[in-house]
Specification:
The chain is of the alpha+beta class. The chain has six helices and seven strands; from the N terminus they run βαααβββαβαββα.
């Protein structure tokens, strides 16, 4: 939690609010949303899961230590989703972050704060060493999130994910725990204060 912004585990009872936010933001989210590629000839057809199926899958992956599924609340209402996925242990200790947010709160610092909360949790509590964010080059709002937080750009992954009906290139941004010794949220607060001297931050719990 940081002021009005809360990052918490997704729950089955979030269904109504989650669906409502998705419905209102259909056009805003569609160009950046993961899609299921066409099946190979003779292969099984894949279907988009229901909300309940999605939550059960996320919980199963979380219980296996491979994922951290969250929703984002702003001023008491659900406004987005953030998932730390692909968690790998052993000699790598890494994961990657994906996220989306309600267009009505975009530009208010909600998503950078949520990402910073998630990264600090991954580094300080979970024990990961590296976090990646992979973003389509055309996705300006999402790129601004990682740029504001000081993620390093590492290069291009051609045709990396199936998005909006096709295989799309993604830019890779990353941070390791050594790069944010005081925590990413604290660094984000400093950056906001320097660019907007009038901003005062209300620390969370």
């Amino acid at each position: 939690m940081d002021g009005d912004i809360v990052l918490r585990p997704i729950k089955l009872r979030d269904q109504r609010a989650w669906r409502e936010v998705n419905r209102r933001n259909r056009d805003w989210l569609r160009p950046w949303e993961a899609t299921i590629p066409p099946p190979a000839p003779g292969g099984p057809l894949a279907h988009r899961p229901t909300f309940r199926q999605m939550v059960r899958h996320l919980r199963s992956e979380a219980n296996a230590g491979r994922m951290l599924p969250f929703v984002i609340e702003y001023q008491g209402r659900l406004v987005g989703q953030l998932t730390v996925a692909g968690i790998t242990w052993g000699s790598m200790c890494s994961g990657h972050v994906g996220y989306w947010v309600d267009e009505s709160v975009a530009g208010r610092g909600v998503m950078p704060t949520a990402v910073a909360l998630a990264v600090d949790h991954c580094f300080r509590t979970v024990g990961l060493h590296r976090i990646e964010v992979c973003i389509r080059p055309e996705n300006g709002p999402s790129r601004r999130v990682v740029e504001k937080l000081g993620f390093r750009e590492e290069g291009l992954r051609p045709r990396y994910l199936h998005i909006d009906g096709g295989w799309r290139d993604h830019l890779v941004f990353a941070l390791t725990v050594e790069e944010v010794p005081d925590g990413l949220l604290r660094r984000w607060h400093r950056a906001r204060s320097q660019s907007n001297p009038g901003i005062r931050h209300r620390p969370g719990n």
